[in-house]
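re: that chain from earlier
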Amino acid sequence: MNRCGVTILILLLVILSFILISCDQGIEPKPISDPTGFSGEVTFIGEWPGGIQRTHIVVFKNPLLSESDFNVFNLKYVSEEIPNGTEFLAYSTLDPSIIPEEGFLNTGEYSYIAVAQSKSEEVSLNRSDWFVAGLYFSSGDSTNPGKIVITEGEILENINIVCDFNNPPPQPPGGN
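^ sequence. v structure.
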């Protein structure tokens, strides 16, 4: 073999070695994990307020202790719109949603789960455009928002919310 052939052979061996070492599992898809999230029921009591433009189940990672906590980085789940006049809704975070697009939440702790409504015609992330119609409370404690902890492959059940339009829950800071 001449010198040019040896050079080409060495170059091919280097390229082949690089491909074999770096490809490990190639473009194999990520392993499919079990869905993660929660489900429950929302019960609406009383007459819906007039002028409601949108109603959603919303989930925040951290508590809403100040107006600045109401932000896109803290907001981890937004359901599709709940139709005006609904009396009862069985829901799951695996149902189609606006956030997250993949349909299930990451593992971790979530500190504020609510039904939020807006009279604003435009979709807005201004805290003053939204009010809380119902809030998830842990069993036996209706004074503080309930927290949940989701572990990998777990669907928590009975994360229920009551929206009593005659007796709304305490509003987080920055609202009307």
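The chain has a mean pLDDT of 84.
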